[in-house]
Design goal:
36% helix; 11 helices; 8-stranded parallel β-barrel; 288 residues; single chain
Length: 288
């Protein structure tokens, strides 16, 4: 029996509740190569994790929280403290999906030892099943170092947001033959190093397809190809929370519009004193 957490509305605290299924594991997910597509979404809070959990195989606590939650202009400013706090919340709010936490910029690039120190802290403080890190050939030794020490890793190639200052922007990668070949090499190096999956982001479609067929591990596309072994989106983009989104995003709802409508109705009810109504008030205690 697994455990999830419900929110006690009287105290706003997360309360453990038995759940009728076991959590998926990394080996279970890894065996899906070439099979049923893997469903992955980002999550940053316990409540969102509760809502997404039964629909997803993987929940990613992405460093995109820097922009989505904190209003930062880049993921480069995200800290390990932020990732640990939100990672723990998502683990508390889920019982089915495998939870993966992004390693933020500066927490793993210096050396495999630095990466292990950061990743082991993430695992210990959050209860997550693994970590994700960006980079290709240069990061392969680090991936191997982590995997050999018991930390499951998802790689990330193509458009790597933490390297936006080097890449010069968020445009699609792999348009030139040289860049196309380099990204294939990056993916293959990360796969050989032992990553159980690789996020392939923002690449020309044939490149996403080529990477998927050339590596033994899962590929998870985001602006890549339907041929990938799975797909991931930032949940707020998927829900339509922002006016501007990347080309590869499909909005499955207009959640921002629905929030605006609800907030307007609330404001009107407050101003015309129709809220709170009698049903929303506490009756006085009867005398004697």
């Amino acid at each position: 029996m697994s455990t999830t957490f419900t929110l006690d509305t009287s105290t706003s605290r997360a309360t453990p509740t038995p759940a009728p299924m076991k959590r998926l594991t990394v080996p279970m997910i890894a065996r899906r190569k070439g099979g049923e597509p893997v469903v992955m979404l980002t999550a940053y809070t316990a409540r969102m994790a509760q809502l997404l959990d039964r629909h997803c195989d993987l929940l990613l606590v992405g460093d995109s929280l820097g922009q989505v939650i904190y209003g930062l202009d880049t993921t480069v400013k995200v800290t390990l403290d932020m990732m640990c706090a939100h990672g723990a919340a998502v683990v508390r709010g889920s019982y089915h999906a495998v939870v993966i936490v992004d390693m933020p910029f500066g927490s793993y690039e210096a050396s495999p030892e630095q990466a292990f120190h950061s990743a082991s802290r993430v695992m210990a403080e959050t209860g997550a099943a693994g970590v994700k890190l960006e980079g290709g050939v240069a990061m392969a030794p680090t991936v191997a170092f982590l995997v050999e020490r018991g930390i499951p890793v998802i790689g990330h190639v193509g458009l790597t947001p933490q390297a936006v200052n080097v890449l010069g922007g968020y445009g699609a990668r792999g348009k030139s033959q040289a860049e196309y070949a380099k990204i294939v090499d990056d993916a293959q190096a990360i796969a050989r190093a032992g990553a159980f999956a690789i996020v392939v982001e923002g690449v020309v479609e044939p490149l996403g397809r080529a990477i998927t067929s050339s590596v033994d591990c899962l590929t998870i596309g985001i602006g890549a190809s339907p041929a990938c072994d799975g797909q991931v989106l930032v949940v707020d983009d998927m829900l339509g929370m922002f006016e501007r989104t990347a080309r590869f995003v499909r909005r499955f709802d207009d959640f921002a519009g629905r929030i605006d409508t609800a907030a307007a109705a609330y404001a009107a009810a407050v101003r015309d004193r129709s809220f709170p109504a009698e049903a929303e008030l506490y009756a006085p205690v009867a005398a004697g």
